[in-house]
Write a structure and sequence with these properties.
mainly alpha; 2 helices; 0% strand
Length: 70
């Protein structure tokens, strides 16, 4: 039980946990470095999404709805 008297749910070890372990290991155990790397990857993916939306807009794909690409 937690200090507040609430029952805690045990964390499950799933695919995300092993991915996190791999990312941290690739940064030699440096959590700050792993976070920085993930933020950079996220920025890159967001830029790619923006490019996809821009390309889709050129062909009128976004006219069908707001969530066509997402």
């Amino acid at each position: 039980m937690s200090p507040q008297g609430k029952q805690e749910t045990p964390m499950t070890f799933g695919p995300n946990e092993s991915a996190i372990d791999e990312i941290v290991a690739s940064c030699n155990g440096d959590l700050r470095g792993a976070l920085k790397a993930l933020l950079l990857v996220n920025e890159h993916l967001e830029a790619e999404i923006a490019q996809l939306y821009a390309a889709a807009a050129q062909y009128g794909i976004t006219e069908r709805g707001n969530n066509v690409l997402h």
